[in-house]
Amino acid sequence: MKFKTLAQAALLATAGLATLATSPAFAQAKEQFFPVLVYRTGAYAPNGVLWANGYVDYLKLTNARGGVNGVKISFEECETGYATDRGVECYERLKGKGATVFQPLSTGITFALTEKAPADKIPLITAGYGRSESADGGVFKWNFPLLGTYWVAADVLLQHIAQKNGGMDKLKGKKIALVYHDSPYGKEPIPLLQERAKLHGFELSTLPVTHPGVEQKATWLQIRQSRPDYVLLWGWGVMNSAALKEAVATGYPRDKMFGVWWAGAEPDVKDVGDGAKGYSAVTMQHGAEPNSKVAKDILSLVHGKGQGTGPKEEVGQVLYMRGVISAMLAVEGVRSAQERFGKGKVVTGEQMRWGLENLNLDQKKLDGLGFAGVMRPVSTSCVDHMGSSWARIHTWDGQKWNFTSDWLQADQSLIKPMVKAAADKYAADKKLERRTPADCQS
Amino acid sequence: MFYRENGQFKTSYRADQQIFPITQDRVALVALLAFAFLVVPMLASEYFFRAILIPFLILSLAAIGLNILVGYCGQISLGTGAFMAIGAYGAYNFFVRIEGMPLIVALVMGGVCATVVGVLFGIPSLRIKGLYLAVATLAAQFFTDWAFLRIKWFTNDSSSGSVSVSGLNVLGLPIETPVQRYLFCLTVVCICALLAKNLVRGHIGRAWMAMRDMDVAAAVIGIRPIHAKLSAFAVSSFFVGLAGGLWGFVHLGSWEPAAFSIDRSFQLLFMVIIGGLGSIMGSFFGAAFIVLLPLFINQVPAMLGVPISTALAAHLEAMIFGALIVFFLIVEPHGLARLWSTAKEKLRLWPFPH
Hints:
Structural class of chain B: mainly alpha
InterPro entries (chain B): ABC_transp_permease, LivM-like
GO molecular function, one term (chain B): branched-chain amino acid transmembrane transporter activity
Transmembrane segments (chain B): 27-45, 51-69, 76-95, 101-123, 130-149, 181-200, 230-250, 270-296, 308-331
Distance between the termini of chain B: 15 Å
Oligomer: heterodimer
Order of helices and strands of chain A: HEHEHHEEHEHHEHEHEHEHHHEHEEEEH
Order of helices and strands of chain B: HHHHHHEEEHHHHEHHHH
Strand content of chain B: under 5%
Helix content of chain A: 40-55%
Strand order of the largest sheet of chain B: 1-4
Radius of gyration of chain B: 21 Å
Number of strands of chain A: 14
Strand content of chain A: 5-15%
Number of helices of chain A: 15
Shape of chain B: globular
Protein name (chain B): ABC transporter permease
Number of helices of chain B: 14
Subcellular location (chain B): Cell membrane
Structural class of chain A: alpha/beta
């Protein structure tokens, strides 16, 4: 009996390995293959699902609109569970299928893939996350933190706080606490905040919260003791709603709390309901946009045909829109590459990189794609892989997110030298040369 | 029929004490090694190397390390992830701080760091046993998580707490392509497995097993408990630390403490339990089961052409995997290695069982 089971198991295993070995199916000739790294399970799933649905729906919408100059898009999802080693596995699996661009959706996975991308010649888009110094295209040839980085976010938040107080000089003597997810993601803003603290003389305290962030009692005890004037929240997933609940319990005013854009979506505040009223978060650059043209297009062309990926009600929510915008940036990268290397052709990873480096989404193009009012123009270059450093603040009114600030731009005179210094340090550590002007033509 | 020992006589102690006394085993092992070193590099795809073979090899090495401690010496440890982290960060610090540091020396020094800390956290084992010890080693896990997240010196003042290495080479040979990485890992794992096997066959291994089976009796027959237990912790942590260094340097290339979280400790403990406690071979089986099976299950629906959503696939993976663990432990509580030796026994008698 035992031997029989063993033999069956062995047979199954060999059959499985044989199929695994022969499985790399290559993308069809006329299809641009998009790998989709998502997390629909695990601790961060409530937020990850929305992003994934938006991303996939936009790819479907692009196909419904006729593809990119006739090139249809094929895609495949891979579940990372927000774990770095699973993300690397997904990357290797989908790379073999002809992937030309990756969006890791996790700072940890971004760090791991940054090491691999140059060898594989596949660009990485980290729209609104990833490592801040990768905005420097002179060193990070394959990374594209389009729309902004955590340094941009931190800077905009401080500007907003300063405006409320009547100017940057009013920050002097204030106490600002950063409650952050204890991972590379949460630590990203610290260098910029420290720089600003030195410049303007406010007191910065950093309070880490360990993964997944449910347990924050000790952190909020510290806040209760030190009574900071403002709390910046750098959380993700369940950590955000837990922080808001703790704030309610501690009696810390929510209108003094400001989140990063991963802490400013519906799943973060819904459970807290009225308790989250007055809580604000920065948005890069979109917020909840159920009335935008692209959301309506998705409803009619994708959901209307019964091909929608999630519930209809989610279309236009904050994280859903982030997925949509991320997908749009990748698709527009392909379009931009096609303009140089031949319309109607499937582009390679290297061509895609050129396309992303010469991305020029002006207002007209954005309007045409249905993003009017959702975002500002983005234009990248060889040196500037970020393309835009504008952001807005939105505030939860108990029912929905509303914009409560004008467009704010991060102070490039402060960020640029920091980016350059950090990128130079990276290049020195890795013994990399900066790209030559010949390599950097745009 | 294929596996009969008729006519294989051992006429010397040397012949009787070989690792593989049966000719068929030796032939099979040589064939397997030749296949792994010569054929696999030509056949396998990049995905196979980077996502399957390399993690499998490295985690096998870590499982061997843990098996020495748990399987051979009977000291339950939940701090394996911590010792991997110490190996990785130790090797990283030697690698970046000393100019011209050879990769292998850095990795070995990482292993040595893990050994030192392993012995430190092994000291409680002299007083406490079983589950109590497991909880004490858990302290190692929490301590290293804290240390590598908070003490900036360890991460070379990296602002994000994530470190990375590049430009790996051994004696001038680059370790860059998947094949090179695979061969490097394979060589290290083969050497370590041979070392481990010989250790557990010798008097040191006998002392460990005596401690495991009954420590009072072992002490009575003249085995020094301090020596036996701490040497088990030392050797185990060295292998685990080496595996941690390989995981960071060769597999990930860039890592953060989360890569060596408590989940990794549990994963490794499952490997040695499912693979077979007290068996070097079992460590490989366990690693294969835990690393490969979820990936395999994950890809089955796509292979069969059944379109299911990513979330459902991930949930199914967890469910089937869990059910299989339970099934295997009911069918063979002594692990896959025991299943393997049972099969071997049956094959010896085949086709005339009695």
